[in-house]
User: Fold these one by one.
Assistant:
Number 1:
Amino acid sequence: MEKKVSSGLFARLNAILVLCVGLLSLPAHSQSQIRDAEIEQILRDFTDPVLEAARLNKEDVDVILLNDPSLNAFVARGQNIHLFTGLILASETPSQLIGVIAHETGHIEGGHNVRRLADMRNASGPAYISIGLGLLAIAAGAGDAGAALIASAPQFSYLNFATHTRAQEASADQAALRYLVATGRTPAGLLEFFENFRDVQLYGESERYRYFYTHPLASDRIEALRNGAEKSGLLDLEEDPEDVYKLEIMKAKLFGFIRPPMYVQREYPPSDQSIPAKYARAISAFQNDSLVQALELVDELIEIEPENPYFYELKGQILFENGRIDESVDPNRKALELAGGRQPLLLVGLARSLNARGEEEDLQEAEDLLNFAASLEPTNGYAWHELSQVLEKLDRRPEAQLAIAEQAYFYGDCRRALSFSMRAIQDLEYNSPKSIRATDITKICSTQVEREARR
């Protein structure tokens, strides 16, 4: 009987420790990634100057947008900066958002991501102590006290983790300040961001503001940042109107796509005739099947800014997703042309319309567009998926199977990638470039699948 009780308690102990680590690591895979050509371009416009100031290679750093209403940003999976939609929507000025991006860049330059994993392991020490005391209390007959001690384990772990990371946070603050000064941007936004949320750890909204699980604030950090900001001479620098507009456009677009219509109408009422407000209402109407209103609003936007590729992209998407395939081709083609012809998501958008229309010349053009998109962005799963459909229609099944294998491989699904690459190899021309690529995927993924089976 005693052994059963002990094993049950230790099972609970393990579950609590998993919870501790889960709260601290907050992995990106629990949220869905948003891909949008316009928003990604704006985020690159905000991020690239900071990366240059940090002497980091822009090509090595991806900015990934996650659909989550909580306020959060972090660096993970190498040098990738992850931003939550909640952070963007909460940013009142461009300098606030850019300040957070600069802070995260400071973590990349400082190599903090690797050190933080060790800090998380070290942070579990107090949790073990708390749980051990709880087990002793339960054994002594003080069940309630023991349960309370065990339940407090995550808090002890968090406090210890915060102690380990404060030096890294202060270092990232100063690095961010250095980047902002080097790019001629005001550090006021980063200071405002921290001051706005300095008390959040003392109250009950920490789940909403996940950023402060892994970015614990301290008054001395804020004061050090304030001193440096004041010495920079840029604290009172006004926001760039172009950056303000970009942030407004990005927020309006996100609001239109992810918020219910009643909230969109409240935030962007019909009385607001600004471009961002019309944009939000057009997207909201499209999302809620108000086709006539959506097209009217997007046509108004195109009339105001006839050289804006993303208004044409939206019109093409509205038409396509409402079954007006033939009409969607021209706006998607115009969007790609105005954007310079090299934007992977716009390439896929036009190819999708051509593929759906299905004429022989459409399929040939779609194949070229998708191959180009995949060459620019090999991890673009949309491109590989659409290419597999085009190749299947062209009666080139082995190449279609290879395209599915590519998509699965870049999504990390090695079992699916292995299945389709092995099928493709059987019928692809021996030793051709595509056959060699299929063989490479097969070798890599078979090793991975075997390793998972052994585990």
Number 2:
Amino acid sequence: MEDKKTKNITLDGEIYASIFDIKNIPEGLDFLTNDESFIQVGTWNYKKDKILDAHFHNYFDRSSYRTQEVVYVIQGKIKCNLYEEDTTYIDSAIVESGMMIVQYQGVHEYEMIEDSKVLEVKNGPYFGPDKDRTRVNVKKN
């Protein structure tokens, strides 16, 4: 779902990444990613003294064939360049303090535009740099 606080980067009808401005999140629980995404991202905005029911998450036999990644900029400004897996350029996005990008597929490259502090979250388990990712030379514009 795309609104004024969300920018989806797409190619041939497929979403490669979504950029969310989460400085002003709606009240309550709001999930930003769709249910089919391997990584689930939501926001909470509750008043003082709100208690969320105690719970645990049930065990399911889940499988994911792709790592999806969330990058939240705590401080600073970064540029994310997106490419197809054959390294063809798709688009670039500026992500600054209070914003995050969710990467669903494809190749991504980050440039630090300012001194930046960033939080990265992705689905696991992590199999190490040699097995978990492939570094590529991208076609620069």
Number 3:
Amino acid sequence: MEDGMTRAGVLARWGAGLADWCERWFPDAFVFALAAVVVVFLGGLALGEGPLSLAQAFGKGFWQLVPFTMQMAMVIVGGYALAVSPPVHALICRLARIPSTPRAAVGFVAFFSMMASLLSWGFSLIFSGLLVKEICARVKGVDVRAIGAAAYLGLGSIWALGLSSSAALMMATPDSLPPALKSLSGVIPLTSTLFIWQNGVLVLALVAVSVTVAMLSCPPPSRARTAEDLGVELSPPGMLSQSSGKALVAPSTTRPADLAEDSPLLPVVVALLGLTYLGHLFCSKGLLQALDLNTYNLLFLMLALLLHKRPRSFLKAVAGAVPATGGVLVQFPFYGGIFGIITGTAIAPFLADAFAGLSTPATFPLLVALYSALLGLFVPSGGGKWVIEAPYVLAAAQVHAVDPGWVVQIYNAAEALPNLVNPFWMLPLMGLLGIRARELAGYSILQLLIHVPLVFLLCWALSFTF
């Protein structure tokens, strides 16, 4: 036991040191997006493209992702609003009563974080963060670094294999596909990506391994750094509100405007109207055929509106979600510009030929996984990075006759790996818990060391089943 704890402590210290180095030397993700524009521009010049043609391609591509940008922002808003609704919070309070020991608590949060991420990565972050605060208020001796990292596991492991997968939903949504991608691969339905048995194997393997590692690496109470040690503010059990962490008190007023804002009539009627439309759509087209980014976001928003019941409560939740959308709103247009340069110049054919020439049908899955994971360190966006990567990856897949749906899933599995060390998507969770990235990094890096060989092995081995 002592040796095991020593190894875990070394990994945690190494992770904290790496996080310190990243905080010192790594600028904001937006700086990487700007740098990527410059790199792609210089690459075009090296391939003989003129500066004016590259600038035109950048400008034409800049706004191509506006619908997709809005859709991804709504994933965050809908997931957040649903997670902080009163019924879901009541569920969180009941779940928090189940674990009774620190190790069980960490494994419990890891499991529910990953299960929630299969529904929505935005929902998972908030749901898991609230669950952590409720559990830490009940179970003594929980290491908040270990349980905080467990709460982040959904976004760091299997979120892209679930229903909010940016790449899979984009490929299944005709309106979200840029023309260049649509002409290359056409629409790829979810029955060819998320709902194949190989994806189920990936999910089950990652959940089992991640929960096991989270539990075994949890330090005993004598070695734990608790919420009190790190200054994490915990409310009494059951007292967290929808978005502020404080008890929500309804205004005592009889003004007509306030009464309207606290009336459940309009939200319930509108939510039922939207859900009726979705029910008819799913029945007429089939769930898998009808599910895309638009129907997915509409479902989450209507459920959140129904569960909040009152306009005031719903708008309070939306206001809490808006800050987390800033990175998506400002960075995705620049990813669109990068996409325009790549697809509108000689860069895409060059990269497609390079991918095809450097790999064989057997090694192509490993090359895609490696490239996707490395690029994710600099472009921390599943959807934005897929837009950059898809044109030449899918073109090379055609050369090797690799199933395009499986290429999307290889990308999805590998894309989540850098999230374990990249603080960009940790921000909502860190804000909710009041901790820093460095305090999560040690346990996240421990997971990363095990996830990398597991994901690469599964992506390669399962490719032979197509």
